[in-house]
Design brief:
The chain is mainly beta. It has 2 domains: 2-117 and 259-269, Immunoglobulin-like (Sandwich); 118-257. It has helices at residues 2-16, 131-139, 237-240, and strands at residues 20-22, 27-34, 37-39, 43-52, 59-66, 77-79, 89-97, 105-129, 149-153, 157-163, 169-170, 177-185, 190-191, 199-203, 211-212, 229-233, 245-269. The longest helix is centred in the first third of the chain and has 15 residues, at 2-16. The chain is rod-shaped.
Length: 270
């Protein structure tokens, strides 16, 4: 009878592939059980394969099992001693034990998670001009508007940059301009809250930052999207200089913590 059950389970496993599961892009986490099923009061190994498909280095990588269902574990956790390089592969093995069961077979689940820290940086150039330069360009049909929306991304998050009006921005005493930053989770994992020290936006010129952002509080995502960050662009005629126009550059840096999870189903036989 036991062998009939084993053959039936192996047939299901061959069709469904349920003893090996893999996450999507970015940091890919795969789980495999060896053997693909286990008898009661026995042991098996679960292998956690971690593959960095990001095109950049990841910091503070931690891989561990949690919520192992009916299986017992003495704890399986690994903190990587150095950053994980692009396209680097690592694997850890965890020994689990099964309890006694009364049924002929029962199914349980093992959960894993991998967390890491990364940065997303961007530099967005935009033009500022005074009224005289604006009049000169419009008179010569040389005034051309640029897009007001720009998007920067990696495998896990995007930063949307929105100007309140299409550049070039014409500096006038009665006119105010703003720039908005929206952070979204586009990966297959979970992103932590963004603290004030995790986000920076400012112009690249030394001793002159025209991006004025109010004090930031900790931001929590609403679904996949964080609350929008609003900043005022405060440029003066002195900033533009005698040339009548100036190309400015916003530097943005986001440091974020990310976590991906995976679940593996395992059959226990009596």
């Amino acid at each position: 009878m036991r062998y009939a059950i084993i053959i039936a389970i192996l047939s299901v496993l061959a069709i469904s592939g349920c003893t090996s599961v893999t996450t999507g892009n970015g940091l890919v986490v795969s789980l495999q059980a060896d053997p693909p099923f286990a008898f009661s009061n026995s042991a098996l190994d679960v292998h956690i394969d971690v593959d960095n498909h990001n095109m950049k280095t990841l910091r503070n990588v931690v891989v561990e099992l949690f919520d192992t269902g009916m299986l017992k574990s003495e704890g399986c956790r690994r903190e990587f001693s150095r950053p994980m390089l692009p396209n680097e592969f690592q694997s850890i093995s965890c020994r689990l034990t099964t309890p006694p069961i009364n049924e002929s077979s029962i199914r349980t689940e093992v959960n894993s998670k991998a967390s890491f820290e990364s940065d997303l940086s961007a530099n967005q150039v935009f033009e500022i001009m005074n009224e005289g330069e604006y009049q000169r360009r419009t008179a010569t049909s040389d005034y051309q508007l640029k897009p007001s929306n720009y998007v920067y991304r990696d495998s896990n998050v995007i930063i949307e940059i929105d100007f309140s009006e299409q550049p070039p921005l014409v500096i006038r005493s009665d006119k105010k301009y703003f720039v908005y930053f929206t952070i979204k989770n586009i990966g297959n994992g979970f992103i932590s809250d963004i603290k004030p020290e995790d986000f920076f936006a400012g112009t690249s010129e030394r001793n002159m930052n025209i991006i004025d952002c109010p004090p930031m509080t900790t931001l929590s995502p609403n679904g996949k999207t964080f609350p929008r960050i609003a900043c005022e662009i405060k440029a003066t005629p002195d900033y533009i200089g005698l040339g009548g126009f100036r190309n400015s550059e916003i530097m943005i840096k986001l440091t974020y913590k990310y976590e991906v999870r995976n679940t593996l189903g395992i059959n226990i036989l009596r």
